[in-house]
Amino acid sequence: MGRRGRSVGFLVAALIAAAAAAAIADGYGASVSRGYGELRGVVVATTTLAPRRAIDPAAAEEDLELRRVPARFVPPDALADPAAAIGLVPAAAIPAGSYLLASQLRPPRTDGGGFGLGPRRHPVEIAVSGAGALLAAGTRPAGSRVDVVVTAEPTGAGPGRTYVAAAAVPLLGLAPGGETATGEGTSVATLGLTRGQALRLIAAESFARKLTLLARD
User: Fold this and answer.
1) What is the pLDDT of residues 52-66, one digit of tens each?
2) 170 in a domain, yes or no?
3) Other beta carbons within 10 Å of 5
4) CB 197, CB 177: distance < 8 Å
5) pTM of the model
């Protein structure tokens, strides 16, 4: 066999090996999905995040990573998008390899102890469900911080995906809204959002089953 023939043979063998490896990987992924449930995206810290240091866009790109893991292992308040952490501050050090949770993040403090919208946030009205729980606490919710939780429509026989779409955002106002197709009452929440957060939540209003506000501790 000549040199050219051997080269062609090596190329064919490499292609066969690559196809076999891909098939094995696909089979493994399907096996994991069957054993542990569907895979979901979750944000993981690739380096240790220092406390009280705001996560800027560069840190979100370099220090955070989106991984797909079985849904049963994903904490309820795990972030599903690294951009959702931009502008927030870890309350304590977050070790490398840890899931990034909404409960671990806080808005940066201002000199007055409250918060301002800041140069990158704008008031945006979003239709939400279940806001009556905020009023039941007996305090005025406007001026507090909330997490916006999205529950998507199910794609199969299982329940819809639930995830934190925007963490620790300012709640500027809350007013009665209309009703959903199922008769559930809604409210109109005015939130201080970054452009990225606003685009995600506006899109979620179209495809999600509901958006819910959770008060921060």
Assistant:
1) 888 888 888 899 999
2) yes
3) 9
4) no
5) 0.57
